[in-house]
Specification:
Layout lengths: L1 H26 L4 E3 L13 E3 L1 H15 L3 H13 L4 H10 L3 E6 L8 H13 L1 E2 L2 E2 L2 E4 L10 H6 L5 E5 L4 E6 L2 E5 L11 E5 L8 E5 L3 H5 L2
Parallel strand pairs: 1-2, 3-6
Antiparallel strand pairs: 3-11, 4-5, 7-8, 7-11, 8-9, 9-10
Helix pairs in contact: 1-2, 2-3, 3-4
Length: 221
């Protein structure tokens, strides 16, 4: 069931991104637009107003519904909405529902921004990220002179996950070692409103992701 949920999340990312881009090609505007853009949908058009967290939750909702766990997701989503859609609330509730909390940081020795080095210290010492339990790590895959690809190679086997950075200020989902994020300031005419970028190249430099139950253990084999 857990791997089925993860595969459904991957399907959500792929099919929804494709539908948006196909719609742009056929009618000139896609299926989603950013809630911080100045875009106004054509009269009578049914489009989704979205943001980084709304996109991640939309893909997660699709996955939970496909495996018959809508009731679980509805509780999680309702609590997220009660808490201003804060990413740490969303991730914490997923972890409490049995998902695996994974702290990620491309270079724990990078002290250019204390947010990242300090969060790495706390994650290792107390096994938490903003009070969310951390059960494993994806670390130092961009560290020089020697990168550690162990964690990110394991992540590449995970079909779907949900994550946040900067204490929940930015939220996203992902498939494998790629991040799927929504740009809240993009109009419906932009095919990159939802974009896939590799975690190795991701500009946000530390955070936590939640992996569906049992999937991380399977990826470790």
């Amino acid at each position: 069931m857990s791997m089925a949920l993860a595969r459904a999340g991957k399907e959500a990312i792929e099919t929804k991104t494709k539908a948006h881009r196909d719609a742009i090609r056929t009618r000139g505007y896609g299926t989603h637009y950013g809630d911080h853009s100045n875009y106004r949908p054509p009269a009578g058009a049914s489009l989704t107003e979205s943001s980084c967290v709304v996109w991640a939750m939309e893909c997660a909702a699709y996955a939970f519904e496909k495996v018959g766990q809508s009731a679980v997701w509805n509780r999680i989503a309702a609590n997220a909405r009660r808490n201003q859609l804060k990413g740490t609330v969303l991730i914490k509730d997923l972890v409490q529902a049995g998902w695996t909390g994974i702290y990620w940081n491309p270079d724990t020795t990078d002290t250019s921004d204390p947010e990242h080095s300090y969060s790495a210290h706390v994650a290792r010492r107390s096994k938490t990220y903003y009070k969310i339990p951390v059960q494993d790590y994806v670390l130092d895959y961009r560290r020089k002179p020697r990168a550690d690809l162990t964690g990110i190679n394991k992540l590449d086997k995970v079909p779907f996950w949900v994550g946040c950075a900067r204490g929940g200020r930015h939220v996203f989902c992902g498939t494998g070692a790629n991040v799927s994020e929504f740009h809240w300031d993009y109009p419906a005419t932009n095919p990159r409103a939802m974009e896939l970028v590799t975690l190795k190249d991701y500009a946000w430099l530390s955070g936590i992701i939640a992996v569906p139950p049992q999937v991380w253990a399977l990826a470790s084999r």
